[in-house]
Design brief:
two-stranded antiparallel sheet, alpha/beta, single chain, Spore Coat Polysaccharide Biosynthesis Protein SpsA, Chain A
């Protein structure tokens, strides 16, 4: 199936926040792809100096496929939604701003699986620079206790429970069914990609892991949603996971989550020799519960 006249087959969206040269390299690699029918949306949340550098890059490229948008408000789910509200491709691909594409047919590899009308989303092989798999086989899901289970190093195509944000695409028809990314996920350890994927699957679509869509994820130590403080990172993880569990599994699943994450909190307090860690992380869980009580915030903006 081809896109309608004047509508690209594929729209690529790259949100970015203070990533400098890594972002510029990622943009150039996308534009160097063989795939003939795509446009590229750069959703920039960077501070003034980096914003100026990014705008200069766009001007230097002079490529009509490139569209640039700067947002004053930072937040990855919101940035994805702003891109989604503008992109018109039949398929929409999201990439992180610190990736290396390993083949100039990467975009084509994302599009081909959509020949199957049941496929609503595709995620590819992610070679992580620093993160290691915690599952033996290809996997991306949230365990019963709330742990993120992932192994994106597989070499065989297969159905999967969730796409991963650094390297994921969705059929526009599936997106139209479920809306946008949920802005309740904040900070780091967001889970907004998993939340979105679960909603796509709940609508009856298949998610597919396609190893031919391969990239290296550099997990740059600064910029983006990275935080240097370990406790702050855990605070976001506890908050976002509490929200995810309640949203997708309800109150009955919450005791198991509390047991699992209570043990994690105690282990962190012992490792960091700070009993106050438990209180801090308990507060993060309460914040996630409060977010759940407010309801999701996943409507796409009007543009």
């Amino acid at each position: 199936m081809r896109a309608s006249p004047g509508v690209p087959e594929l729209s690529v969206i790259i949100p970015t926040l203070n990533r400098g040269r890594l972002f510029h390299d990622s943009v150039r690699q996308v534009l160097g792809q063989r795939f003939p029918d795509f446009d590229l949306w750069l959703v920039d949340q960077s501070d003034p100096d980096q914003r100026a550098a990014n705008e200069a890059l766009v001007a230097e490229l002079g490529d009509p496929r490139v569209h640039y948008l700067h947002l004053a408000v930072k937040g990855l789910p919101n940035a994805r939604n702003e891109g989604l509200a503008r992109a018109r491709g039949r398929i929409v691909l999201f990439l992180d701003d610190d990736v290396i594409l390993l083949d100039d047919r990467f975009l084509d590899a994302h599009v081909r699986p959509y020949e199957d009308p049941a496929v609503g989303g595709v995620t590819g092989r992610i070679v992580e620079r620093s993160v290691r798999p915690n599952a033996k086989e290809t996997a991306a899901h949230i365990s019963a206790g709330g742990r993120t289970i992932t192994n994106m190093w597989g070499t065989e195509r297969r159905p999967i429970e969730s796409c991963k944000g650094a390297n994921m695409s969705y059929r526009r028809a599936a997106i139209d069914e479920v809306g946008g990314f949920d802005r309740r996920y904040t900070g780091t350890a967001l889970l907004e990609d998993t939340d979105f994927s679960y909603r796509i699957r709940a609508a009856g679509w298949t998610l597919l892991y396609e190893p031919a869509c391969e990239l290296v994820h550099l997990s740059a130590p600064s910029g983006g949603v990275r935080v240097e403080d370990a406790l702050r990172g855990e605070t976001w993880r506890f908050r976002n996971t509490a929200y995810f569990v309640l949203k997708h599994r309800g109150r009955r699943a919450f005791p198991r989550f509390l047991s699992t994450f209570g043990a994690i909190a105690a282990a962190r307090a012992a490792r960091w020799r700070d009993p106050g860690v438990v209180t801090t992380l308990a507060g993060a869980i309460r914040a996630g519960v409060e977010d759940w009580r407010k309801g999701p915030d996943q409507a796409l903006p009007s543009v």
